[in-house]
Specification:
The protein has about 120 residues and is an all-alpha fold. Helix content is about 80%, strand content about 0%. It has helices spanning about 1-25, 30-55, 60-90, 110-115. α2 packs antiparallel against α3. The N and C termini lie far apart (about 65 Å).
Length: about 120
Amino acid sequence: MILDVIGACLLGLGILLVLLGAVGLLRFPDVFTRSNAATKAAGLGIALVLAGTACVIGTTEAAVKMTIAVVLQFATAPVAGHVIGRAAYRAGAPLWDGTVTDELQGFVERPHEAEIG
């Protein structure tokens, strides 16, 4: 009974985080902030959904499988977000007007910089 309540809470929180990540994906101004929203909020949200599923099922086998899935989620989502952001930067995706610092400027060549220089 208590595992069902904990599982339901984890599922609800996970779904909320995935929903917030989707809203960020639609509302944020550039590809870099969108990628950040998609990888961080959705990554943690999926992990909470998996943990909640393991609690609701309540077997050791489910817990092991969901733990493996959570570990893989935490290992791959940040790498995917970084690779997508790096590819967008190299392709010349515009930065948001409110961007204060471009830490890759001078280290990674962008298409419009190659045309200027």
